[in-house]
Hints:
The structure holds 2 protein chains of 2 kinds. Helix content of chain A is 27%, strand content 25%. Chain A is of the alpha/beta class. In chain A, the strands form 5 sheets. Chain A has a 7-stranded mixed sheet with strand order 1-9-8-7-6-2-3, sandwiched between helices. A 7-stranded mixed sheet of chain A has the order 21-20-19-18-22-23-26, with helices on both faces. A 6-stranded antiparallel sheet of chain A has the order 15-14-17-12-13-16, covered by helices on one side. In chain A, strand 4 and strand 5 form a beta hairpin. The longest helix of chain A has 20 residues, at 289-308. The termini of chain B are far apart. The longest helix of chain B is centred in the N-terminal third of the chain and has 13 residues, at 63-75. Chain B is 36% helix and 10% strand. Chain B has a 5-stranded parallel sheet with strand order 2-1-3-4-5. Chain B has 2 domains: 5-153, NADH:ubiquinone oxidoreductase-like, 20kDa subunit (Rossmann fold), CATH 3.40.50.700; 165-248, no CATH class. Chain B is α/β, with parallel strands linked by helices. Chain B is globular, with a radius of gyration of 19 Å. At the A-B interface, strand 10 of A face helix 2, helix 6, helix 7 and helix 9 of B.
Amino acid sequence: MKIIKLDQTSFNFWVDRLIKKQCVFGVQSKGDRFVFDTLTRAEDLRLDYDVTILPPKKYFLPQREDLLDFSIKGEYKSITEREPFILLGVHPYDVVAISQMDRVFSADNYDVHYMSRRYNATIISCDVQRASNQVFAGSMNTATVQAGFDILLTKIGDSYLIDARTAKGEALLEGLTVRTEPTDKDLQERKQVWKENARLLQKNKLKGKPEELPELLEKSYYDPIWEEKSKLCFSCGSCNLVCPTCYCFDVQDDLNWDMQTGKRTRAWDGCLLRDFAAVAGGHNFRRQRADRYRHRFYRKGKYMAEKIGQVACVGCGRCIDACIPNIANPVEVYNQLFMSQKNIYIPEQVTLLKTEKMTERETFYELKMDSGLDLGHEPGQFVEISLPGIGEAPISVSSSPTQTGTFQIVVRAVGNVTTAMSRLKPGDHVGVRGPFGSQFPVHDVMKGKDILIICGGIGLVPIRSAINFILDNRDDYGAMTILYGMKKPKDQLFATELEEWSKLPGVQVLQTVDCYDESWKGNVGVITTLLSLIKLNSESTVAVVCGPPVMYPFVLKDLETMGMTAESIYVSLERRMKCGVGKCGHCQMNEIYVCQEGPVFKYSDIKEVMEAI
Amino acid sequence: MSKPKLAIFDFASCEGCQLQIINMEEEILDLMSIVNPVEWREAMSEQSEDFDIAVIEGSITRSGDEERLRRIRERAKVVVALGACATCGGVNKIMNNFNIEEAKKAVYQEASLMPHLNTSLTKAVDEVIDVDYKIHGCPIDRKEFAYIIRCLALGKNPEIPAYAVCVECKLKENICRYEQGEICLGPLTRAGCGARCPSVETWCFGCRGFIDDPNIYAAKEVMNKYGKTSEDLKDRMMLFGSKQRYIYE
Ligand SMILES: Cc1cc2nc3c(=O)[nH]c(=O)nc-3n(C[C@H](O)[C@H](O)[C@H](O)COP(=O)(O)OP(=O)(O)OC[C@H]3O[C@@H](n4cnc5c(N)ncnc54)[C@H](O)[C@@H]3O)c2cc1C
Ligand code: SF4
Ligand code: SF4
Ligand code: SF4
Ligand code: SF4
Ligand code: SF4
Ligand code: FES
């Protein structure tokens, strides 16, 4: 094992030298995404990438490749490539995927096409410097790797640690004149990077261990989730094609014009495509979308685990990005299955880390799941808080999912559960079920838009989750205006945070009280008075409204007068709830179960629902 | 093996697809080495009553055309529809969204009453006769045309993609148009063009027609998710003829 340290200039010099020696495929930008492509100069290398559109498998199993030359008479000649090349910047999860593919293509029937390319490759891995939006390598134990590559790069400050683990790797370091040994501190920092990455690369969080997936799937063949999710499936195969562990292919012949000789080629295929398992006579072994949709999860989570001893999902998150209807997220599916294997009425234990009285009636709590997992919520969702002997109450999550490790709620003492809550202290335990319900559309509709937030009273609590989410992903959104109304100055929640928000560029905070006293310097009047103070570009704005029931008719009417369409307004509604899972019926407004389809609704979807507003 | 006799006929079209064949350049000689062209208005003056493969370009817009088409079918062993006009009605089918008389007036103005401009609703070739093979696209892809003709000469069913344009688009590692806030018909449209349009950073217009089981329900739901409406989707589907068959279901 040989580790050296190079500063950025020497590092680029080294890369340029590699390029002179061999063909180097390195990560480069393509629009606002990244791809592996032929590298012609070190400057173009983007080791700060998040994820590439296609995985590096394309260099071992190209999208389309010639297998054989043949003649009509029955002569076959194998076509293989033997050029050495370097893959530069492979992330750990992709290294794991390549190791899995190696097993598939070398075991049983040795695939000379894949393997000859594989032997010609030198893999230079690079620890992740920037987490992609959907990565969950941390959940799949693939955030860091210790084998499967020739060299590992880790960025420490402005330098790279270059760790050669094989003879092939060491050969690439030969003849380097400027080279420093790393200090103990550098190596310590590298360990820290590995630890941090295991935590940070978890934008989705699996509610279980990858090893549990085969057994989970064993029990889930008839789960309604397959039918339900696949209703939106285009059968477009994108989830297969972008996956580093999908390797199915189709084989076709084409003749040359002489009609005597030709080529047999193979091209990527996918089990989600309709005709993948079709046989002559019109029978298709996976005719229904649901059959094909299910097959992918079984293949990754069960069949491959049985074949190679490891779950064949490395948590790169590519399928999630590639699926237009957003139904391909493995974590979402596996978590829902984990949930449905459990009794939906049994809460999980959480511990109170912090409690803080905010006003006369409201208390703030910070909680941590005893399982060590994250709650896994989205802005706008709620949980059922359970106190044995007293009961349960639906409570919104107030923290942003970008804050990991703990979550926060604010509870107003109004009755049994909520008052009992107010007597709890740090270290006490409560039960939690969820997260439940719909979310503010921060991942799609709100992106790139100006955001108008209108909240009254305790309505700030759930909306705070969205506000902080947006602020943590600031570049994805336009300007944000926050209008907050309360009865009395004393009712104000999150005073310090409101103050901080108001100082941020592109954020405007306006507050008003119904009844004022000496302490109040701001506006007075109901929340709609604030609307007249703002400039609104109704075309580019998405509005989000949450507050007491009385507030909605007035606010919604004003927004529409100001040119907002019902399509671009989202409301969060409160109803009496018991089960939170669409069973007990308490939350129903006409045909809609608020706990499932809500609490967040697009206004246009409920405008005509009589009991809604 | 004697060379199959090939005839190419055109109906309502821009003749762009035939032009693609002519533009095969040196490969056109290769083509001639495996088929024997007996009638092809755009490239030769001969006409023939006797052929094996009839290639039809264009959509059917007049009743006289239907008669002519049926005669071709009777005489041909294999009928191939060439290009979007023939396979799905193509751009010509936009007219079906309007009242015919008004559409004519808008296009031809005073001349609209002239008898030679008489027209009825646009039909794809398979709305009039049985079609054996379809070469999709507006215009067609030369390589695919060559491949299909080679298959027919060999007596093999050509393998025409049944999957969506997204497949080829992913293979090309394009950035998805939906990520750019555009509506792309790729998930509904039959592949084979190599995702020509998304590869030059524009959406797929659906010129190769829909796949056999397009998930229109999903397409509409996706509009919601991306802050668009089914009307926007419908607009996008206007250009090529398949819209009428599905969107109103
Ligand atoms: C989706 C959702 C999110 C919520 N988020 C929060 C939050 O973040 N913070 C917070 O303090 N409160 C929140 N609530 C309200 C909270 O759930 C209720 O105040 C709580 O259920 C009352 O329970 P309890 O046992 O304390 O009162 P109980 O002793 O059961 O009843 C006391 C009074 O409250 C009324 N009540 C009971 N359940 C509800 C209910 N679900 N909604 C409104 N009134 C009710 C009763 O009719 C009665 O008048 C939320 C409610 C919903 C539906
Ligand atoms: S299933 Fe999805 S997240 Fe898992 S490895 Fe494949 S593309 Fe990546
Ligand atoms: S990417 Fe999504 S829509 Fe396409 S096949 Fe996969 S699950 Fe279905
Ligand atoms: S399909 Fe397009 S290119 Fe071909 S004839 Fe019709 S309009 Fe012209
Ligand atoms: S750009 Fe169009 S064809 Fe390409 S993946 Fe996206 S939707 Fe599919
Ligand atoms: S991408 Fe769509 S519109 Fe463009 S050529 Fe292909 S099928 Fe036609
Ligand atoms: S709360 Fe029970 S059905 Fe919604």
